[in-house]
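Below is how a single chain appears once it has passed through the pipeline. First comes the sequence as given, then the structure the pipeline wrote out for it. We keep one example in the README because the format questions we get most often are answered faster by looking than by reading.
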Amino acid sequence: MSILEVKNLSVILGNKEILKDISFSLNEGEILLVIGPNGGGKTTLLKAILNIIPYSGKIYIKQGYKLGYVPQNLENVSNLPICVFEMFKFFTNASSKKVEEIMEFFKLREYKDELFKNLSGGLKQKVLISISILKDSKILLLDEPTNNLDVSAQNEFYRLIKELREKYGVSFIIVSHDIGIVNSTADKILCLNKVMYYHGIVKVDEEIIRKLYQSEVKIILHDH
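Resulting structure:
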């Protein structure tokens, strides 16, 4: 069942065409991986879906499905001088019981009294995703969520994504440069470089990837 549809989306910023005629859909419980080169419009796509930049075309979100967003750059929140538990209470209306439950699920209980600004990048990601779940977000938009994580933290992140889908029924649009994880994580991929080169079931086609990045790209698949 489709819960989000993008039809003929185009974005022009400062007289520069960033995205042109993008159309795709996201089904309930689906993990959609958006890949493409730097400057290809991936982050712009997320911002358009969030309706924080102007665009032409149509974006439909099924009634009752809230969006959650974790940006690539966490500078706006990274230095908040409050502890993890206070973060949950400040940004959500969740009961203490619900906060404790979500902290248990995300294995954050031991960091309850730690200052958010002192956490590692991976733990900050967990806290922000936890907040989205507490706000009952059913579609999470994640921009390069593993960009600054080591291999162990990346493995933990991809495991967590699958568990969130199973336990909370969350669907994901994940922007990533990591082509190698498509087989192990994504249900569908969207290949984007200002225009859409491919959208559909996971299919790592070297010809599509070469055109997408406009260069020779060696694909190495790996599991998480």
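The radius of gyration is 18 Å.

See the next section for the split statistics.
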